[in-house]
Design a protein that fits this description.
Length: 264
């Protein structure tokens, strides 16, 4: 199986070492190929905020850099490890640039048959917030998030106890991720995912004129059909479906009203 590590640290430090540990354990379990995408070395400009990728499509991005190559790397992998240190109580700037540049994927999700492992390291604080954020990003992009692991690695030397604790956490993450990659089928979505689908359906279904790239993508996927419940043909909890349906109706009415008011 092929694993892509999207490395958000600007150095081969704690986060890189943590990813290497995961690699070591996964390799001990079977045939695994690892590729490290060191964002510090990638030719990926900061997003210029022009909105063109949303409205016209990512092919129209004014930056002619390695973005599409990087997206292809994610498509070619069976699993992606999103790895970042906590910098300034957030993901690193490199990781944020990476996420910003692929923001069109929030609108046009695509990685439904890929699994993700989220990995973060910190001096003390912020792990939960960063992992929650990465989970939101990877989830909306379509990934099934198999596991999330955060370890504390301050700049000063750490105790042997903490070292062992970190090692155990990384080992567990590697084992769970490896086992998840062997599973073929995709599970039933949670309530949040169902609501995100319905909210996007309500929005993009109204954007044929203003955001044709989004609208056409959704239409081609069949996600705008009246009975479409989710991105994938998997069982959806009936209660979640009713909640999602109601949310979609409500939101669609609100969007239509606002668009009509904007034209007055
Ligand atoms: C610029 C910078 C900002 C940091 N900000 C935080 C922070 O907000 N909270 C925290 O607990 N640790 C913070 N740290 C510590 C790192 O998160 C921690 O040492 C991490 O393991 C470094 O990973 P790296 O070696 O891959 O860069 C910061 C470190 C640096 C260099």
């Amino acid at each position: 199986m092929k694993i892509l590590v999207v490395m958000g640290s600007p150095r081969k430090g704690n986060t890189y070492r943590a990813a290497r540990k995961v690699e070591e354990v996964m390799r001990s379990k079977g045939d695994v190929e690892f590729e490290y995408l060191m964002l510090r070395d990638a030719n990926l400009s900061q997003c210029g905020g022009c909105f063109i990728c949303f409205t016209k499509g990512e092919g129209h991005c004014p930056f002619k850099d390695d973005a599409s190559l990087i997206e292809q790397k994610m498509h070619d992998a069976d699993g992606v490890i999103f790895a970042t240190p906590v910098y300034g109580m957030n993901v690193s700037a490199l990781m944020k640039t990476f996420i910003d540049r692929f923001s069109y994927i929030f609108h046009r999700p695509r990685f439904f048959h890929k699994r993700a492992l989220l990995l973060s390291t910190t001096g003390a604080l912020g792990l939960k917030e960063i992992l929650d954020y990465l989970q939101l990003v990877a989830g909306i992009w379509g990934f099934e998030v198999s596991y999330r692991v955060g370890i504390v690695t301050p700049p000063m030397p750490i105790s042997r106890k903490r070292e062992l604790e970190n090692e155990q956490k990384l080992k567990k993450a590697a084992v769970v991720f490896y086992d998840a990659l062997l599973k073929k089928e995709r599970g039933s979505p949670g309530l949040r995912s169902v609501i995100v689908f319905r909210a996007q359906k309500a929005s993009f279904g109204e954007l044929a004129r203003d955001s044709p790239a989004d609208y056409n993508y959704w239409k081609e996927k069949g996600w705008l059909r009246p009975h479409a419940k989710y991105y994938l043909d998997v069982p959806v909890n009936p209660l979640y479906n009713v909640i999602g349906w109601t949310a979609e109706k409500f939101l669609r009415r609100k969007i239509r009203k606002e668009m009509a008011e904007a034209q007055e």
